Amino acid sequence: MKKVSIIIVFLLIIIHISCGGKKSEIPAIPENSEGKPVAVIITPNTAMRIDPLIFSSRVALLKKGEVAEVLERSSEEKNIGNSKNYWYKVRLANGVAGWIYGVNITILDDSNRGNVESYLSQFWEKETEELGSALHGKWWSVNRFNDFTNHCLEIYKDGKYRSYIKGASKKLEGNYNFDFNNNQIIFLGETSFTGNLSYVKRGEIYTLFNDSEKDEIKFKMINTNPESDDDVMKEDKQDESETKKQENEG
């Protein structure tokens, strides 16, 4: 009996780990919205406001993939930055209502659960494909001075990765998922470093990092087609040469 209990606990742990980072396939849909238009949040940390004004008080902060019933639309489009769109008054499944700017949502004319799930499935698939392609490549850890250190991470478009220490013969392999609302890569296997990595995009360049006090680490992409450890040495020498050139010119 004790062995059976241990096996059950072990299986539950495996299931929990395997599901890490995945999005819920059953979104919370407001009651009595069947057949009515619904809004699906398509941007992270989307503000819901009391009034259809950018400086209006915030009612809630919504995550990608949340679903809300559309109650009404502003009478005219408003300009915010480079965007021009309507404001939409929506109501969440918990009854909270407020206004969301149109660029942050996709309107579905039919809130049938199958229709919403189908849209979200395609949405997450596209998001995963685009981000996976953007992060595909060889990444090397750097310190606060942007000097290369010892960790290497290879990220592939098919959801797999390799992680290892410079010069080590053992290379850790596994699968990864994305947590889009927290901008994180969730590693479902072992890595040469501790924890998951956050990603941030500045311009067209991504940076991966983990700012935890226990294992502060940052990664820089050095090659979009990861092949060998020699790539980082070439890149390192090129950076040093460029730095010296700039210093001499200055």
Keywords:
single chain, 250 residues, SH3 type barrels, Lipocalin, five-stranded antiparallel β-sheet, 17 strands, elongated
Can you walk through the features of this model?
This protein has helices at 2-18, 113-135, 230-249, and strands spanning 38-41, 46-49, 58-62, 67-73, 78-80, 83-85, 87-91, 97-101, 105-108, 137-142, 148-155, 160-165, 172-179, 184-187, 197-202, 205-210, 217-223. It contains three helices and 17 strands. The protein folds into two domains: 23-126, SH3 Domains (SH3 type barrels, Roll); 136-244, Lipocalin (Beta Barrel). The longest helix is centred in the middle third of the chain and has 23 residues, at 113-135. 20% of the residues are buried. The chain has 250 residues and is of the alpha+beta class. It is elongated. The termini are far apart. The strands form four sheets. Strands 10-11-12-13-14-15-16-17 form an eight-stranded antiparallel β-barrel.
